[in-house]
Amino acid sequence: MKNILSNDRTITFIxxxxxxxxxxxxxxxxxxxxxxxxxLIHYQNLPVDxxxxxxxxxxxxxxxxxxxxxxxxxxxxxETKWLEVDFSNAKYLSTKNGIKTYYLLSSTxxxxxxxxxxxxxxxxxxxxxxxxxxxxxxASKKIKVELNIDLSLSPRYKQYRPFQVVPDSIRVFGxxxxxxxxxxxxxxxxxxxxxxxxxxxxxxxxxxxKELTFEKEKIRMKIAIEEFTESKLKLxxxxxxxxxxxxxxxxxxxxxxxxxxxxxYSKIQLSDFLLEALPDSIQTGKLHLKLSKQPENIIIGTIxxxxxxxxxxx
Length: 314
Known about the structure:
With 314 residues, this protein is of the alpha+beta class.
């Protein structure tokens, strides 16, 4: 073998053969080839109230004319490609034994196929000529959405109104057995530290069993936060005693301490409050003070004094 390779004629022949083979391959690759491509189908925008059955078409075969260099590259890489198919373009065909059948003409997927292949190949044929998609309807029920939240506020800041969740309940789809396992759904864990501003954002629902499908994957959450200040008012006391009775109340006024949002401070009026005095069922002459009317979005601190006394006049 060593003697053969040391022969100048042999070496020249081998080099010439390699060059000739390379030129032949180069000439061949500059031409066009027909190739069969297999694309896996991924359906988008599927209805949430139905389950996609396994016998739905999941592969599409595409025959194309392509450049030899591209064909060689595809052969070497062997990459699996997914074709994104929008189900909202499918047409209803029939229902039999609870199974709904839809179809989609493959000819309508030319642009999507071009985007997937990312080449300027010419399509010769696409098989099958129609995609058939089969669904089975699911049972459903409505469940409550609950926020999963840890919240701490900066000093002087308070929650202005209760949390708002939109929607506060959603419909969930699944088999009757799977639906029995869920009564409510939480959101992803949220944490806010030293919050000093309102929040209005979308929040994803927590992960759930694969057998269940939700009409929404996220909800809108609103947290109203305002800076508060403390204020006081002297209010007249209105005893709730028997009609026709003459009496005198000591004291005749009480001081109510409350916290109010700065933006509402100037809106608070004396007429927004009603301080009533209820007779003690045990001690004669004692009255317990209670606010029966107050503005919304304020936080009552103290009522001083918390009790009053009365005497009956003859």
